[in-house]
Write a structure and sequence with these properties.
Blueprint (H helix, E strand, L loop, with lengths): L17 H19 L18 H8 L6 H10 L1 H13 L4 E9 L1 H9 L6 E10 L27 E6 L18 E5 L7 H5 L2 H12 L19 H19 L3 H28 L6 H4 L15 H12 L14 H13 L3 H19 L6 H11 L6 H6 L8 H8 L22 H7 L10 H20 L7 H21 L7 H22 L5 H8 L2
Parallel strand pairs: 1-2, 2-3, 3-4
């Protein structure tokens, strides 16, 4: 390109309603991740753990592998004449309207990213695929007109960036840290950087094939929709949680928030449907009509033959969960309002839903009385953010075993991902005296002393609220909740006493344990005052 120069083409993308476009783009990115998944052969660690401060040194060393490449990339970014000439040359080869698929390797990926700002207004990028891209390196963007200042969410459907963790040209880093719209997928290509090593990978073929030809479903759909296929524990609770989430959506008063929540719920529901169908396929079973129906985005129908004592814990857990995890959307008071609607749907008295809501508020108020605790932050989390780290499927698998049988619950834990999808919710697994379910959760549960204050608050809020609701609705008392809170208090107190003798007086660890003890002891006092202690203990306390 020596002696060739041209002005950089004008930016053609006109931002308009970017919030909505970005939400739709996010849904496509979720589908993209589901399309190809992860390469199980990828080397752990690699160059991805190298500090950012020495990324430029790695790129200097990379010139020994491919002499001149990084100089070409740098020249492209810093020489406006060369940059303009290359962009104009590529644009001349493109149509002026319609859909295209952009694929760029190495320096070509840099040009492809840059091109997005300058495409004809009527051209839509069905998929952007970058492979072996060095464009994520911070030093490349220093003192340059930075690539892609504003991503054209209305032009590009999705963006997959594939890179090798040992590829010195990429420095083992993806593009997500530099370009938020990119979704990174590490591939097992070793130390290779050549296009042939990337383009022969099955992930690239899948991305290209789906973008050009579309997806063709190979699912078996039952001809007879009336076939009574048995529903599993995860399926029943997944449908329950999703149905509750739709009630939450309808009760959100802020229309802008409701729209964001609806889109997030649509994405989560589609993801849940795919995970459940994967589970059924692994078990050699057909997906039930209820699971197949989840793909239409509509609120699923919940069975109406729930007993009151079965439905309390799932309703409390759903009301206190972020049902659109990993998206963080504050629904305000909508979850409490949704309890009445959900009660009607499952066939119990709507007043029972209102009672459950009142009990949650009552226990929350009791916890707020503790002083010196950042309740504003914690109770925001307790309303959803901190509760279910594993997403809505975590809600499905955290259901009390008593509702469907402890053996079924425990068996279901193995069906989903690491830790049976319980992850950070292990404390929730002992919502009732669930026998083997409690043991399964305890296998990965942090100790009370090691759990965060947020985790403990959320844990006791769920359990005590459910116990209070059972009491108010004249159901069999759940006295195991008292012993659960006592066990937490005992463990925290023992840990504090053990550490006090050698720790500093202003130890942050001791201060954390003191806060936990305050929460648990205040709650035990409140439970005793409100008849939630075992009857024998209550009689001994009040006896003259």
């Amino acid at each position: 390109m020596d002696g060739v120069s041209a002005s950089v083409p004008a930016r053609t993308y006109q931002p308009d309603d970017e919030d909505e476009r970005r939400r739709l783009y996010e849904r496509q990115q979720v589908s993209l991740g589901r399309l190809i998944g992860q390469d199980d052969r990828v080397e752990p660690g690699g160059l991805a753990n190298v500090p950012a401060l020495i990324v430029d040194l790695i790129h200097d060393a990379a010139t020994l592998v491919d002499p001149g490449l990084m100089k070409q990339v740098t020249r492209y970014l810093k020489n406006e004449g060369v940059r303009g000439a290359i962009l104009r040359n590529v644009l001349e080869q493109l149509p002026v309207e319609g859909s295209i698929v952009l694929v760029g390797h190495s320096l070509g990926s840099v040009v492809a990213i840059d091109l997005l700002d300058h495409l004809p207004a009527q051209v839509h990028v069905r998929r952007l695929i970058t492979v072996g891209s060095p464009a994520g390196s911070p030093f490349l963007h220093e003192k340059t007109d930075r690539l892609l200042k504003r991503f054209p969410y209305g032009t590009v459907r999705d963006w997959a960036n594939l890179y090798g963790r040992l590829d010195p040209i990429t420095a083992g880093r993806g593009l997500g840290g530099t370009f938020p719209a990119a979704q990174d997928f590490p591939l097992a290509v070793g130390v290779s950087h050549g296009a042939e090593f990337y383009l022969q990978h099955s992930h690239v073929a899948t991305l290209l094939g789906e973008a050009v030809f579309g997806s063709q479903s190979r699912e078996l759909v039952p001809v007879e929709r009336a076939i009574d296929l048995p529903e599993s524990v995860p399926e029943q609770m997944a449908v329950f949680a999703l149905s509750f989430a739709h009630h939450v959506r309808r009760n959100i008063t802020d229309q802008a928030v409701a729209r964001r929540y609806a889109l997030a719920l649509e994405i989560v529901q589609e993801e849940m449907s795919n995970r459940l169908r994967t589970m059924f396929a692994a078990e050699g079973r057909l997906a039930t009509p209820a699971v197949l129906a989840l793909t239409d985005g509509k609120a699923p129908r919940v069975q109406r033959d729930w007993e009151l004592d079965q439905v309390i814990e799932p309703m409390v857990l759903s009301a206190l969960s972020n049902l659109v995890q990993p998206y963080d959307i504050d629904p305000g008071k909508a979850p409490m309002a949704a309890l009445r609607d959900m009660a009607i749907e499952v066939g119990i008295q709507p007043e029972s839903g209102e009672t459950i809501a009142a009990c949650i508020s009552e226990v929350r108020d009791a916890l707020v009385k503790s002083s010196g605790i950042p309740w504003g932050r914690i109770l925001i989390g307790a309303a959803g953010v901190a509760l279910v780290a594993a997403g809505p499927l975590g809600v499905a698998l955290a259901a009390p075993a008593g509702a469907f049988g402890a053996a079924a619950f425990t068996g279901a834990l193995a069906a989903f991902g690491p830790g049976g999808m319980v992850g950070g919710m292990a404390l929730l697994g002992t919502m009732t005296s669930a026998g083997s379910a409690a043991a399964a959760a305890a296998a990965s549960a942090p100790s009370a002393a090691d759990a965060s204050l947020d985790q403990i608050v959320v844990d006791v809020l769920v359990k005590v609220s459910a116990a209070r609701a059972r009491q108010k609705l004249d159901l069999t008392p759940e006295e195991q909740v008292w012993f659960h809170v006592v066990a937490l208090e005992t463990e925290v107190a023992a840990e504090r006493n053990r550490l006090t003798s050698l720790s500093d007086k202003k130890s942050l660890r001791i201060a954390d344990l003191d806060k936990k003890l305050e929460v648990l002891r205040r709650l035990l006092s409140w439970m005793l005052e409100n008849g939630l202690a075992p009857r024998m203990l209550d009689a001994e306390v009040v006896a003259p």
